[in-house]
Amino acid sequence: MAVKIKLMRLGKIRQPYYRVVVADSRTRRNGRAIETIGKYHPKSEPSLIEIDSERAQYWLGVGALPTETVQNLLEVTGDWQKFKGLPGTEGTLKPQPEKVDKLARFQKALAEANDEPSTAATTPKKKGGSSERAGKTADAAPAEAATKSDDVAAATKDADAPAAES
Question: Of the candidates 111, 7, 99, which has an alpha carbon nearest to the alpha carbon of residue 51?
Fold first, then answer.
């Protein structure tokens, strides 16, 4: 039986992460695995690579062949150089940044929220439509109504005037 060390894809569309598995070479990519020896998250910055070095050395020692991608990962962690007896067994793996505690992050956000002013917004909201034309017609309508009421008042005054003279 030909054994390979390969990647098993997991995750969602455009958000992949992989398990480094030892499996029969005839099984499909996400098929049954003999053993899971690590994980690889390429989308995180820097990429997360965790491989159990002891198990990787064992499987390489008994003849498991890594795929090209897994061999590159083993070179980054330094396991491939250790297996081949090459210099540079420390690898070039970048350390992951330390995660901030959720409680500390919450306390910081709470302190920032208390420092902000508690008054309402200083700019008043606009009322009505956003176009200028709608504003002009709204302003013109009360002006026209005012002139009409003045005309009506003048007409009634003229009508009352002759009746007052007699």
Answer: 7
State the DSSP code for 47. P
Query: Could you tell me the CA-to-CA distances from 66 to 42, 60, 73 in Å, in that order?
Result: 18, 8, 10
- Strands of 48-51's sheet in order across: 48-51, 35-41, 15-24, 3-12, 65-66
Asked whether the whole model's pTM tops 0.70, one would answer no
Backbone angles phi and psi of 117, in degrees to 5: -65, 145
pLDDT in tens, 130-152: 655 555 555 555 555 555 556 66
Q: Which residues of 57-94 are buried (b: 16+ CB within 10 A; e: fewer)?
A: eebbeeebebeeebeebbbbbbbbbbbeeeeeeebebe
Cβ-based neighbours of 123, under 8 Å, separated by 6 or more: none
Compute the 3-state secondary structure of the chain and give helix, strand, coil in percent, each to the nearest 5.
Answer: 45, 20, 35
What gap in Å lies between CA 88 and CA 79, rounded to an integer? 10
